[in-house]
Write a structure and sequence with these properties.
The structure holds two protein chains of two kinds.
Chain A lengths: L1 H44 L7 H11 L10 H35 L12 H14 L6 E2 L2 E2 H21 E2 L2 E2 L1 H25 L1 H12 L7 H20 L1 H7 L3 H6 L4 H23 L5 H13 L3 H25 L9 H21 L6
Helix pairs in contact in A: 1-3, 1-13, 2-3, 3-8, 3-11, 3-12, 3-13, 4-5, 4-6, 4-7, 4-11, 5-6, 5-11, 6-7, 8-11, 12-13, 13-14
Chain B lengths: L1 E10 L2 E11 L4 E5 L6 H8 L7 E6 L2 E2 L5 H7 E4 L11 H6 L14 H13 L15 H14 L4 E5 L7 H16 L3 E5 L3 H7 L2 E6 L2 E7 H4 L2 H8 L3 E5 L6 E5 L4
Parallel strand pairs in B: 3-8, 3-9, 6-7, 7-8
Antiparallel strand pairs in B: 1-2, 1-4, 4-5, 9-10, 11-12
Helix pairs in contact in B: 4-5
Classes of the chains: A mainly alpha, B alpha/beta.
Chain lengths: 365, 257
């Protein structure tokens, strides 16, 4: 029976290609993990104070408790472990959170040009931070953690709650009303921030600088502060990766395929927003990572969200880690650029190039 | 398989379905006909719990519709929608595998059985060659067949089809309905909303005609597919002639009538 032979060889071919694509994914994952790890170590060695590599490695080893105390001098130990390594790791975590959150929001809103800030979470965080500056809390700290991240987090979660409440129509969270509610909340909060700026001129520069995003002066305490929200958010969205795939087909088909659309959409929104809030509250509003990275990964790898989230997370982390290295080393005098400026300056033209190529009919595959 | 009493559905204040009553037994293949806006799609959406019932009762497979969770319902009935809104570049095999979702648990990955079922469904709908292609890069008719494969991969005993073959060329239309007939003979129940009257007459044993949200005619094809019924329901002049091979009635519309 040549016909059935042909059919079964076709089935084998499909099976083979699925296995092959899984292998490519795993290989890519391992490679990215290796690059990420070496980037963390590499970026820790880069800075204004020249420190030899052996000292850098020894300092990291000692900081992690892998080697006995006292083998490295106090200054390089503090610079490498407390200042640089914590900052490098924080920038990687924030970039990962934004990359994953971007993939989630693009999927939930079924808009490949959405980003983690589309539904107003960032404006909530900015409002919280602005309020803290205006109340003169910028300097106050608890265990080295300023009140800024705390109020920014409260603001982000408050904005999310508001958007979810406003976005509900007859008990259902609809995609279009959600986006509209996000715009309304973001606009209103931006007006409040402008009002704060107008009333308190001293706070203006602090607010403006914070909104542009930066990792200057961030340390382990910020890692510890954002990590729980980040992990919780990650758990929520990864658990729903398959449902997110189906949700992109639209609400009707998702229901007909057995997805509890309301529950899943709420969970994804909360998860994505927790990731965003964890990122924004310790770093400010860093644009483009959450837009460009998942978009690029989807174009090259396809839309399946489990893989999309994992790869976007790692690539987002890498992108932000190196952007932060650029932001703190580019100017010769030792001043820092806000990292949000770097990501926008690099990401903007890059994204334009990407869209241009795509419009020309070239689709990466 | 489906029992409906006094089913009423509303969009806002506008009543779209006015108290429908009907019963569809197991292993029937029923055509749902009627002009645009007669409520065919809404009825199918009510039966898949997308549009809530405003009044009345519906049972599917002996169980009240409201008692089903989304997942339980997806194990019993599969739907093929009229419009596809796929904007993300999934591969066709991934789309068909989505039909296996109700069979899977949290954190499950696609099992070998899922893959076998998905590929089997794709073979039946002549879409195996599309398996690795992006669904955003194939034609509308091809995508429609991929979605039919997804519904088959769901392995539900009831299939609700909303213009499932509207975008297909003639050969594939016939091929799909031959497939539905075969599945029907093996025990599956079909309710198909259709615009192609002659296709409906060829394959459906029974026709339900909707007009303005009410059942206007319901009965065996040979008895209901008449000049009188069709011209009244569609408000167009029509002649009926028997199919030269099978003898089932076929409608010929009269131009300028």
């Amino acid at each position: 029976m040549p016909d059935s032979n042909q059919a079964s060889s076709k089935l084998e071919e499909i099976r083979g290609r699925l296995t092959a694509s899984r292998r490519v994914f795993v290989l890519g994952l391992v490679l990215l993990a290796i690059v990420s790890l070496s980037s963390v170590l590499g970026a820790t060695g880069i800075g204004r104070l020249q420190i030899p590599w052996e000292t850098v490695m020894a300092a990291i080893g000692e900081g992690l408790g892998l080697s006995p105390a006292g083998s490295v001098e106090r200054t390089p130990l503090v610079v490498v472990f407390d200042i640089r390594l914590s900052r490098v790791i924080l920038s990687f975590l924030v970039g990962s959170a934004l990359g994953v959150a971007g993939a989630v929001f693009q999927g939930v809103l079924r808009n490949p040009l959405a980003d983690p800030f589309t539904i107003g979470v960032a404006s909530g965080a900015a409002f919280g931070a602005a309020l803290a500056f205006a109340l003169g809390l910028g300097g106050a700290s608890y265990l080295g953690l300023g009140t800024i991240p705390l109020l920014a987090l409260v603001g982000a979660l408050g904005a999310l709650a508001l958007v979810v409440i406003l976005g509900r129509v007859q008990g259902r969270l609809r995609r279009d009303t959600l986006v509209l509610a996000g715009i309304v909340v973001a606009t209103f909060l931006s007006a409040l921030i402008a009002l704060i700026k107008a009333l308190d001129e001293e706070a203006v520069s602090a607010i403006v600088f914070w909104v542009m995003g930066s990792f200057q002066g961030r340390g382990w305490i910020h890692v510890a502060f954002s990590l729980p929200y980040l992990l919780l958010g990650l758990y929520l969205v990864v658990k729903c990766a398959r449902e997110l795939d189906i949700l992109t087909l639209g609400e009707v088909q998702a229901r007909q395929l057995g997805v509890e659309v309301e529950r899943v959409r709420r969970r994804l929104l909360v998860g994505g927003s927790l990731l965003t809030a964890a990122a924004v509250s310790v770093s400010g509003v860093i644009g483009f990572v959450g837009l460009v990275v998942p978009h690029l990964v989807r174009m090259t790898m396809g839309a399946a969200h489990q893989r999309l989230m994992v790869i976007s997370g790692l690539l987002g982390g890498l992108a932000l880690l190196w952007s932060d290295v650029v932001s703190r080393t580019l100017l010769p005098g030792g001043e820092e650029l806000p990292v949000g400026v770097v990501t926008a300056l690099v990401g903007g033209p890059f994204f334009c190039l990407l869209l241009k190529r795509r419009r020309g009919g070239v689709i990466l595959d | 398989m489906i029992s409906v009493q006094g089913l009423t559905a509303k969009y806002g204040d506008r009543v779209v379905l006015h108290g429908l009553d009907f019963h569809i037994g197991k292993s029937e293949l029923v055509g749902l006909l009627g002009p645009n806006g007669s409520g065919k799609t809404t009825l199918l959406l009510c039966l898949s719990k997308v549009v809530p019932l405003h009044a009345g009762e519906a049972t599917v497979s002996g169980r009240e519709l409201s008692a089903y969770s989304a997942r339980e319902l997806a194990l019993v009935e599969a739907s093929v929608p009229q419009r596809l809104e796929i904007s993300f570049p999934f591969r066709c095999i991934e789309v068909v595998l989505m039909g296996r979702y109700p069979h899977q648990r949290d954190f499950d990955s696609d099992s070998d059985k899922d893959l076998t079922r998905a590929m089997g469904a794709m073979r039946l709908t002549d879409t195996l060659d599309l398996a690795q292609r992006r669904i955003t890069e194939i034609s509308g008719g091809e995508a429609q067949r991929v979605i039919i494969a997804r519904a088959l991969a769901q392995e539900a005993e009831l299939l609700l089809l909303d213009e499932a073959t509207a975008n297909l060329d003639v050969a594939h239309k016939m091929q799909m309905f031959d497939l539905f007939s075969k599945k029907n003979n093996q025990g599956a129940t079909f309710l198909c909303a259709m615009h192609d009257l002659n296709l409906a007459a060829l394959y459906c044993q029974r026709l339900i005609f909707l007009k303005n949200g009410r059942i206007s005619v319901d009965g065996p094809t040979m008895e209901t597919f008449t000049e009188e019924n069709l011209s009244e329901i569609y408000e167009a002049e029509v002649r009926i002639i028997p199919h030269p091979d099978t003898g089932v009635p076929q409608a010929m519309f009269v131009p300028g009538g």
